[in-house]
Write a structure and sequence with these properties.
The complex is a heterotetramer of chains A (about 290), B (about 375), C (about 240) and D (about 240).
Chain A (H helix, E strand, L loop, with lengths): L1 H30 L6 H19 L3 H23 L9 H22 L15 E4 L2 E4 H23 L1 H11 L1 H6 L4 H26 L7 H15 L4 H21 L4 H15 L11
Antiparallel strand pairs in A: 1-2
Chain C lengths: L4 E10 L2 E11 L4 E5 L6 H9 L6 E6 L2 E2 L5 H7 L1 E3 L12 H12 L4 H14 L15 H14 L4 E5 L7 H16 L3 E5 L3 H5 L4 E6 L2 E6 L1 H6 L1 H8 L4
Parallel strand pairs in C: 3-8, 3-9, 6-7, 7-8
Antiparallel strand pairs in C: 1-2, 1-4, 4-5, 9-10
Helix pairs in contact in C: 3-4, 3-5
Chain D lengths: L4 E10 L2 E11 L4 E6 L5 H9 L9 E3 L2 E2 L5 H7 L1 E4 L11 H7 L12 H7 L1 H5 L10 H13 L5 E5 L7 H8 L2 H6 L3 E6 L2 H7 L2 E6 L2 E6 L6 H9 L4
Parallel strand pairs in D: 3-8, 3-9, 6-7, 7-8
Antiparallel strand pairs in D: 1-2, 1-4, 4-5, 9-10
Helix pairs in contact in D: 3-6
Classes of the chains: A mainly alpha (about 290), B mainly alpha (about 375), C alpha/beta (about 240), D alpha/beta (about 240).
Chain lengths: ~290, ~375, ~240, ~240
């Protein structure tokens, strides 16, 4: 019974990792860009929600809604002004610029908020739990997982059911030909990053409400997100969710054996997948 | 073939600037070795820092700038080397000097094992893959109770004082043993730095170095003229791990205290190093030297401003990457054509080269 | 005499598209063979099959008596198959001389010092000696095409595959380059040459092979081939 | 009367490589112009320059009397010039219908061409509307590429090498659609290696060699020998 509980907790934790990863997956899917500042942007989003909560006295969920348009604009501008300049055949510029951005965001947050740990309070929800059969699960972990599923469903719908998603896929295939169809790849990329930042805001809400945050925890989140994306297979949103769940389950199982093995177990699961299925579990057919 | 006579060709790599620089460099290195005679202990420690950062930077530059392997996980080898040295000294009772060498070999072995994973990833994924590997190594070593687990440990007090040469230095300079140990580690850093730069310079001037440059420029074409791109990249990855591991061990001989978080810090051992190389000029031997000076000047002048230092460093790094991707040295070298470490093979002589004349100068 | 290169019944498909369909021919030592055919006929693909950049689906490729059908590209280069790329692929940051030095040192497994003189001679032969110490990225198109040729020669090939080396050049440039290739051929080099600039091609090669939809549809003396009805139909779509 | 589309002294380079040397060409409303020439003659470069994939001097290309040479592809397309690119360039991640819909991305366009009318022109596409574009035969892929360009109801349709790699009977089927496309109001520029085909459909022909126009005129005015010379640079 203890193992079933461990696995359920792991699946729910995987929801959080899938939320971290979904934005990364979206940006990679559209423009083959790996943003090394992704984890720090999640932390930035969490601090933004924190500021809105304390300044306007809003409920964290409402505060996240307020933060979304701000983060969208930030992502749009960042992509349009900075990151678009780095796209090309050479892999160095995007890597080094986003790595620099990661350091800049971390230290700007340190300057603004100090190194103290903080938490976004959701009051009674934090301790609330519901019974699923014989197992009690926390309301917040459950909410996180359901949000992750909702985000994946929404991203799939956006990608495969809308004109914008069609343009994303077409531009990802061939930006020059997409240009002949009237697409301006630079604006389209900026829109994609903007949308990714909305997902980042949702991830930030749950990161900040479920654990303590400080300005330096971004890179670890980037690594979990990256592992989830690779395990799932590049370009597959459902794969990303599966990847997040695998990391989550591996971590809770590792922690059940020895609390110090939690993070290590997640990484080992990732390396095993890399060894056995280098292209991930659900690779997109035409990559 | 109806080719003209093949006599009279010569190949030169020397330039006037380089000859001048070589003379200057010899004087500088001699001065640097003599430095313990006339500089303060704190300045000596600063110089130690500069030299070790330069070793790490030259290695990362070889890896990313020449072999195209952009790693953000080099802290794996710094930390692993440091821990290997600690194990040899604290648990095995070896002399730290010998332990440094063993640490390099341990890091090289680690690179062979991890290369098997990360070489399955391309480009940006290679980068994060190396980072994951570094995290795994950190987490595993944090389980090593004998070396302090997650909180870390210190070298036995006697270990550095009992190093082979410390006693001799202490007598020759009439200083205390702890200061003599500083002098020794400084000399080792200087030696490692000169050896690293010398090795990379030598490598670039060999056939393999030429092949490496060809792979960097156009991998497909390099394969079609018989260059084994994969083997060259592997060799560079392992060599760089060896030297990085030794540098890590040396840094921690001087620090004498280790913890997993410090020894595997991505900021200290990779972020700083990347900024040094990018700001100075990636893909040149001169770039990291310029970069380390800028890095150090910035650090000294912004020392009182806490995280502003890294913030400014990050912004400068981004700006250089976007607007001057060849770095400060690139800007200078493009304008003047000056190179201190020429690797260009210049063809001279022959039956008709003088007749037609050579155009164009040395370009980096 | 044993042929330098013997291609028999080579097939290659990309999905629904057949790019090589039972291609069979052989090249005698010292021979120059031209390959023509419309865009998309499978000419460059055929080169990639010979050099090993693509794997054949069926058939055999024999080079100087040894079967190289499954050998990797690097090994074929070392055995003596030299090629130029249709779109020049110089090592842009290396100088022209260094481009040759790489090819010489790796392509014929020799030390740099041993090949330096030979590279110098090749630079003279291909007319690049005046640009020997200039980074290859600064070359004009003609010079890049010459560099492709020179770099392939530096690997000390036994057979030279030229892929549209005269394309995109002006009349005068083309004439000069053809002169160089003719000299190389006269010195005994076996050559296979894909070219759209037919007058250039026909002034060098002894035999023409016509490729269409991956099939060999004609092979023979250039004059005969140019006069043949099939070629005119394929190239011009004219009813003559 | 001004030409609908005109290039004046158009030059184009890829880095150091000059691909076009002062090309003058014009297309009148309602006309079909064919560009012929060997591989590497500069035909595709000319198409890409007009379509805005390559950016030129503003006055080197004029459409409806307006300079468009410096506009990027998306804006050229918005003015009413659509291109069927060489090699078809279907989006492999998209189904046939999605490929078609990409043709009118981001705008409502008035005109005869909608999904239904494109399916009317190429009925086979309707049967395969949900297949990935890449699962189709070469001829069907070419129909998708043409249909996709038509979806924006262009005033000028640029067709680059549409017979490339296709069997003669398939080429005939595709060209059978052209009268309908013209009747619906589009003027055409066709790049073709198959000279016979080009001469059959074109009102005027430009022959290019090595980045220059070496011959132009109405098909009836051009002798086979002239074309042969302009095409290969040798007399047969």
């Amino acid at each position: 019974m203890i193992w079933v509980d461990t696995i359920v907790q792991g699946v729910l934790l995987g929801g959080l990792y899938a939320l971290f990863a979904a934005g990364l997956s979206l940006v990679f899917g559209v423009m083959r860009l790996v943003n090394l500042a992704h984890g720090d942007l999640i932390v930035l989003g969490a601090f933004l929600i924190l500021v809105i909560v304390s300044a306007l006295g809003l409920n964290p969920f409402l505060a996240a809604l307020v933060a979304m348009p701000v983060m969208f604009c930030l992502g749009w501008g960042l992509q349009y002004v900075v990151l678009n300049r780095t796209l090309g055949d050479d892999i160095l510029p995007p890597l080094l610029v986003t790595f620099g951005l990661s350091i800049v965001i971390q230290n700007a947050l340190l300057e603004g908020f100090s190194a103290d740990s903080r938490r976004i309070s959701v009051g009674g929800l934090e301790a609330a739990s519901v019974s699923l059969g014989p197992i009690a699960v926390g309301v917040m972990p459950l909410l996180t997982f359901l949000s992750a599923v909702a985000v994946i469903v929404a991203l799939n719908a956006l990608f495969y059911r809308t004109a914008l998603g069609r343009a994303f896929r077409a531009t990802s295939d061939d930006p020059v030909t997409a240009g002949l169809m009237g697409v301006d790849p630079k604006r389209l990329f900026a829109t994609a990053t903007g949308i990714a930042m909305i997902v980042v805001t949702i991830a930030a809400l749950y990161l900040g409400t479920r654990s303590n945050i400080d300005p330096t925890i971004g890179p670890a989140r980037l690594i979990y997100a990256f592992e989830a994306v690779i395990i799932g297979g590049l370009g597959s949103f459902w794969g990303t969710l599966a990847g997040g769940v695998i990391i989550g389950v591996a971590q809770t199982m590792g922690a059940a054996i020895n609390p110090e093995w939690q993070i290590l177990a997640g990484h080992v699961a990732f390396l095993l997948v890399l060894l056995l299925r280098p292209r991930g579990l659900f690779p997109r057919a035409n990559d | 073939m109806s080719a003209p006579s093949s006599s009279g060709w010569t190949v030169e790599t020397r330039t006037r600037a380089a000859t001048g620089f070589a003379f200057f460099a010899v004087v500088l290195i001699a001065l640097a070795f003599a430095a313990p005679l006339f500089v303060s202990r704190s300045l000596l420690q600063d110089l130690f820092l500069i030299l070790t950062m330069l070793v790490l930077a030259q290695n990362w530059n070889l890896l990313a700038g020449y072999a195209g392997l952009v790693s953000v996980g080099q802290q794996a080898f710094v930390g692993f080397g440091a821990y290997a040295m600690f194990a040899c000294v604290s648990l095995g009772g070896l002399d730290p000097m010998l332990a440094i060498l063993i640490a390099g070999m341990a890091a090289a072995l680690l690179s062979v094992a991890t290369g098997f994973f990360v070489f399955r990833l391309q480009g940006a994924y290679f980068a994060i893959g190396t980072w994951v590997v570094a995290e795994v190594v950190r987490l595993v070593l944090a389980q090593w109770r004998a070396l302090g687990g997650g909180t870390g440990t210190s070298l036995p007090n006697a270990a550095t004082r009992d190093m082979a040469a410390v006693q001799w230095i202490a007598e020759a300079f009439s200083v205390r043993a702890s200061q003599a140990a500083d002098i020794l580690t400084y000399w080792l850093a200087l030696l490692l730095c000169c050896a690293t730069i010398g090795f990379i310079y030598w490598l670039l001037r060999t056939r393999q170095g030429l092949g490496l440059s060809a792979v960097r420029d156009n991998q497909e074409a390099a394969r079609s003229v018989g260059v084994d791109a994969r083997r060259i990249k592997w060799a560079v990855y392992v060599c760089v791990a060896f030297v990085t591991g030794m540098a890590g061990a040396l840094i921690y001989v001087q620090k004498a205290r280790i913890s997993p978080d410090a020894a595997f810090s991505v900021i200290d051992w990779t972020a700083y190093v990347i900024f040094i190389v990018v700001i100075g000029g990636i893909g040149t031997l001169e770039g990291p030297i310029i970069g380390v000076i800028v890095f150090f000047v910035l650090q000294k002048s912004l020392a009182d401003f806490g995280s502003w230092y890294l913030l400014v460093l990050g912004l400068i790094g981004i700006a250089v990457m976007l607007f001057a991707p060849r770095g400060l040295w690139g800007l200078f070298s493009d304008r003047t054509g000056i190179q201190f470490f020429p690797v260009r093979r210049i063809l001279k002589g022959g039956p008709s080269i003088d007749h037609q004349g050579t155009r164009g100068g040395p370009h980096g | 005499m044993q042929p330098v290169l013997d291609i028999s019944a080579v097939n290659k498909r990309f999905g629904a598209l057949t790019v090589a369909d039972g291609v069979t021919f052989s090249l005698a030592p010292g021979e120059a063979l031209g390959i023509i055919g419309p865009n998309g006929a499978g000419k460059s693909t055929l080169f990639n099959l010979i050099t090993g950049n693509l794997r054949v689906d069926g058939g055999r490729i024999v080079f100087e008596g040894s079967d190289v059908t499954n050998a990797p590209p690097m090994q074929r280069c070392l055995m003596g198959i030299g090629r130029t790329f249709q779109i020049p692929q110089p090592f842009a940051k290396l100088t022209v001389f260094e481009n040759l030095l790489v090819a010489g040192a790796f392509g014929s497994r020799a030390r740099e010092a041993e090949v330096a003189a030979r590279c110098g001679d090749i630079l003279v032969q291909t007319g690049l000696i005046g640009r020997a110490n200039v980074p290859a990225g600064q070359l004009s198109l003609l010079e890049r095409k010459r560099l492709e040729l020179a770099r392939a020669l530096a690997t000390a090939p036994r057979v030279l595959l030229l892929d549209e080396i005269a394309g995109g050049l002006t009349e005068g440039e083309c004439t000069a380059l053809v002169g160089t290739i003719r000299d190389i051929h006269r010195s005994g080099m076996s050559i296979i040459w894909i070219e759209h600039v037919l007058h250039a091609l026909n002034s060098v090669v002894e035999r023409l092979l016509v490729l269409d939809f991956g099939k060999v549809i004609g092979m023979g003396r250039p004059d005969d081939i140019m006069a043949s009805k099939e070629v005119r139909e394929i190239y011009l779509g004219l009813d003559i | 009367m001004n030409a609908l589309l005109e290039t004046r002294g158009l030059t184009a380079r890829y880095g150091d490589f000059q691909a076009l040397f002062g090309v003058d060409m014009q297309l009148d409303a309602g006309e079909t112009v064919a560009i012929i020439g060997a591989n590497g003659a500069g035909k595709t470069t000319l198409m890409r320059s007009i379509a805005g994939v390559l950016v030129n001097g503003p006055d080197e290309v004029a459409f409806d009397g307006q300079p468009i040479g410096a506009l990027p592809a998306a804006q050229v397309m918005a003015r009413g010039i659509a291109m069927v690119p060489e090699g078809r360039k279907l989006f492999p991640s998209l189904s046939v219908e999605e490929n078609l819909l990409m043709g009118c991305f981001g705008r409502k366009v008035e005109g005869p061409w909608r999904l239904e009318t494109v399916y009317g022109l190429f009925p086979v596409l309707k049967e395969r509307r949900n297949n990935p574009g890449t699962a189709l035969s070469g001829g069907q892929q070419q129909m998708v590429a043409i249909g996709r360009a038509l979806m924006s109801n262009p005033r000028v349709l640029l067709c680059d090498e549409i017979s490339l790699g296709l069997a003669p009977v398939v080429i005939r089927d595709i060209y059978a659609a052209f009268p309908q496309i013209r009747a619906a109001g589009a003027s055409l520029v066709i790049v073709e290696q198959d000279i016979g085909q080009a001469l059959k459909v074109a009102d005027r022909v430009y022959c290019m060699m090595e980045g220059r126009v070496t011959l132009s005129g109405r098909p009836a005015e051009l002798s086979r020998e002239d074309i042969h010379a302009a095409y290969f640079g040798v007399h047969a």
